[in-house]
Design a protein that fits this description.
mainly alpha; 5peptide_repeat
Length: 213
């Protein structure tokens, strides 16, 4: 089924699109907000920029699908298969992901590491700045701030842009996040009881911001 056909049916007021086979389909930008998509197969589909907010997505197969910049706000996704999906810049705020399979999901795109010389310079500037502020006190404050500004600029060279998915208020109870690239995802007020998180998380979460090894 093509994007145009689905869009036309939705525009005519239809909301039941359950148990369809849309594997590999290009559905980028489609609007199906509030629709019933239970049991639908989206494996390998392109849903970039799609609006699936408030959709019923129980036991849906999204394996390997492109869900970048997709609106899944307040969607119901229990027991859904989202493994190997790209969810960069997606909005899952308030979504129900209880028992969902999120293995090897990419929530945040990788960023380049700071080069080794950058790490050495970073540490050197920190030490020099602290020393100047402690030894010369007041008049050195301006110089210290100037150095800190240069330092911030250096660090910015290595920091990722804020591409993390929004999972504020999402329900992740019992979800499997093994191997997921959490990066800069936002988890404020989320529920993660019983969820399987990547090895080393949340330590790994902070390393995603400071990967200088």
């Amino acid at each position: 089924m093509h994007l145009q056909t689905l869009s036309q049916r939705y525009a005519q007021g239809e909301k039941d699109f359950s148990r369809l086979n849309l594997a590999g389909a290009d559905l980028s930008g489609i609007i199906l907000a509030g629709g019933d998509l239970r049991g639908t197969n989206f494996q390998g589909a392109n849903l970039h920029g799609a609006n699936l907010s408030r959709c019923r997505l129980h036991a849906v197969n999204f394996r390997g699908a492109r869900l970048t910049m997709t609106n899944l706000r307040r969607a119901n996704l229990p027991k859904s298969n989202l493994s190997l999906c790209s969810l960069v810049w997606s909005d899952l705020g308030g979504a129900n992901l209880q028992g969902a399979d999120l293995q090897n999901v990419v929530f945040d795109q990788p960023r380049p590491h700071l080069p080794r010389w950058g790490m050495i310079l970073f540490n050197l500037v920190v030490v020099v700045t602290i020393a100047v502020l402690l030894i010369y006190n007041r008049w050195a404050t301006g110089l210290g701030l100037l150095v800190l500004g240069a330092l911030a600029n250096l660090v910015a060279m290595g920091w990722r842009s804020p591409t993390g998915a929004n999972l504020r208020g999402a329900d992740l109870r019992g979800a499997n996040l093994t191997g997921a690239q959490l990066g800069g995802m936002y988890l404020l007020s989320s529920r993660c009881e019983g969820a399987t998180l990547p090895n080393g998380w949340p330590y790994q979460f902070w390393l995603n911001f400071f990967p200088w090894d």
